[in-house]
Every structure is written in structure tokens, then in C-alpha cells.
């Protein structure tokens, strides 16, 4: 009679190690997805501003031009929109009330694309 084979899940130390590696892989995926969304959203916004000179950018505009992926589907929180506007290419100008009812008309920042003259 052959002895029963043990899987890694029957050995507590190996099980924890496998769980840790799986969690790290998932977190790496989410981090890569977040970085990719931010980069793509910035590119779309810059293109939009260049096609619409004089227009300002707000979180409302980001939601229209480059909607954030849904958390349940892609593991990205919709609050990522703020990270899109936090870079050297955009300049804070003022604040206003959001036009989006789902964010309860909170105060949001107004930004513009920096130019060499700014």
C-alpha cells in the first residue's frame, strides 16, 4: 500500500507561504492596473485639453473622458481620479462644487494643463 501524498495545503508552513505569494501576486496585478489607468487617463486628458483649448479639468471631467474602472471588476477604487491630476503636467487653479450627484456635490479641484508660459 502506498502512503498518501501530502499537498502543500496539508503542511501549515507551506500553506501560509503559498497564501502570501498568491496575495502578493494579486496586489502586484492591482498596482500595475492602477498605474496603467493613471497613465492612460492622463494621456486622454492632455489630448482632450489640446483639442479644447481654455478648458479646465476637474474630477467630473476625468469621469467623463477617462472613467475609472470599477472596483469590483478591476480592483481599482474610483477615488483614483485624484491621483490622475496629481502630476507636474496639471496645475491647481481653484475649487468648485461637483456636478455629479453620486459624489453629493462635494467641493472638487479645478486644474489646467501647464504650458511653458505658466
Tally of helical runs: 4
Identify low-pLDDT runs: none
Q: What is the N-to-C succession of helices and strands? A: HHHHEE
The CA-CA distance between the termini, in Å, is 81 Å
Could you say which structural class the secondary elements and strand pairing correspond to? alpha+beta
What is the spatial order of strands in the main beta sheet? 1-2
Strand content bin? 5-15%
Mean pLDDT: 83
Entry keywords:
alpha+beta; two-stranded antiparallel ribbon; 4 helices; elongated
Would you mind describing this structure in some detail?
The chain is of the alpha+beta class. It contains four helices and two strands, in the order H-H-H-H-E-E. The chain has helices at residues 12-51, 59-65, 71-74, 81-85; strands at residues 90-97, 107-113. Strands 1-2 form a two-stranded antiparallel ribbon. It is elongated and about 70 Å long. The relative contact order is 0.14. The mean pLDDT is 83.
Short description:
This protein is of the alpha+beta class. The chain is 47% helix and 13% strand. The protein is elongated, with a radius of gyration of 22 Å.
Helix and strand arrangement:
Layout lengths: L11 H40 L7 H7 L5 H4 L6 H5 L4 E8 L9 E7 L5
